[in-house]
Amino acid sequence: MSHDDIVSNPSGNRPFADILKEHQTRRDVLAGGIGLATTAFFAPSIVQASNDYNGGAPEGPLMNFTPVPLPQGESRAVPRISEDYQFEVLIPWGDPISPDGPAYSYPPTPENQIQQIGIGHDGMWFFPKQTSDEYYYNARWGFYGGPKDGDEYDANGFRTGNFRVSGSSTEGMLAINHEFGRNTHVYGKSAPENINDVLVSQFAHGVSIVGIKKIDGKWQTYECDAARRIHVNTPVKFSGPAAGTRLLETPAGNAPLGTVNNCSNGYTPWGTYLTCEENFNGYFGATNPENWEPTEAQERYGFTENGFGYGWEDFDPRFDLSLDDFKNEENRFGWVVEIDPNDGRQIPVKRTALGRFKHEGVALGVGAGNRVVCYMGDDQRFDYIYKFVSAADWRYLYYDRGASPLDWGSLYVARFDSDGTGEWMELTIDNPVLKARFKNQAEVLTYARLAADALGATPMDRPEWTTIAPNGDVYCTLTNNSRREVADAANPLAPNADGHIIRFRDSNNLTGTFFNWDIFIISETTHGTPESFSDPDGIWADPDGRLFIQTDGGQKDGLNNQILVADTRTGEIRRLLEGVAGDEITGLTLTPDRRTLFINTQHPGNGNPNLTNFPVLNEVPDGETIPRDATFVITRKDGGVIGS
Asked: How far apart are CA 259 and CA 262, in angstroms?
């Protein structure tokens, strides 16, 4: 999301560029690229372990598809995909959630938009229909369904072995985020003129839960009870340490409603979806600036008089910072929200133990003692990387105690040290530094950014998606930071115009408080080559050693945003798909058999029909047909594993 371009971290904590400069020179990084990270970062035994994904990685090259070449004057209005792959388009913005719902029309009405797919397609996950009592589980990658009698575990609490795929690869529920849509794109005006305009915008944000299945070889939606829209006015509830505290109550006493700016995502071993609220500050404004002086916390979270210009505050008092009756309404946003994709009656739950900041996404793994571990980036220049570790075995908490593993545990923030090590510092009121600053744990979590500042966390260059590889490596994309001034232009991270990917490994099987780190790749090193990319954003590690990288920003070498596949063993990168002008390529989920990939194009053409008419595939745009966010359904023509 590009329109939050403000730096709101005044902490003065030691910049990451300083630390990197001490740890390894620019020459070291550029000379090594991915190969450096793979062969020099970890001990040989650990590198070997990374090749043992899924009970042994495939022999030979991980990728044998023809990459999309650098453009040679082709149209920027239509996507390009590898000649070994094909795509179809699914659920564009404005299509009905259920087949019998209102068809797309422009501009939408509130009555229609509330029943239609939202705009700003972003993170998502496919929850397959279960086809038997068995389930699929990869001990180091992902999970579907719950535990089963007879499971075996290793000394670290991991299930051993790989179970057969039982979830359907042709039918299930797709949960998809809708990050944002500007007024000019959503309803063709720069600012709302009435409450109906605001409602159209609010109903276009949030999350869609939709049933999809493959019928006669083509994916489409189908009627199901669980399909629904979750938007800015949907009832929600809170859980965890901040729930029920004054921090989440308003003088008006209005009930908590809604989720907004839903960026990336996560999923749990108990079968639920996690959606993450990112740039929530931009939807608030002050109609009477003389009656509003931002607090320290509001400044730290980027609240301003005009927000991002949505104008909701003009017609919806919840979003007016100058109204005393709605004090603390802003504290109700900035959380990770849990949704049951198979229960249309469930009230979404905001899990406060995971902290309040601009959540890009959450990568959830199972670590030592079967504890749930969540890695999260705070997507703003000079902000931080966080980790949550559940207090106990998630099965004990969830099945035996009836408690959410996401309500009981510890939240940490990362400090990266010069010698290639780092520490996870707990955000707890028991720390004297925080006890002197905050009244209780609820305040620590609600103002997690301020707490992280106080502990001396390392400011990063826009931490975005995280992913946990099957061998325990954690990757985090750092999209860019052109405002970094700590080092000179020769240091690619100061300024860091094109971003990089960092990799680290925690002690004690994900759950420890110490880690080793190194740079996986710096985007600048790829420019001028067939592997060129900038501004890494989405990221996902598959069971075999492939890393899928998605981009959001100004690509070099004539490219639009794209998705690439990297072989973490060899460092090879191949481009799988290039999007259309003005879009972002984001969101990533696969069917259990890994033969179908779903990804998204967000804000194609930035809403301008002179740049593209996607999903209408006009190589020369007609200047009239409004482009629509949509989902790509990608398969290999030979039916093989995606990325191979």
From this structure: 7
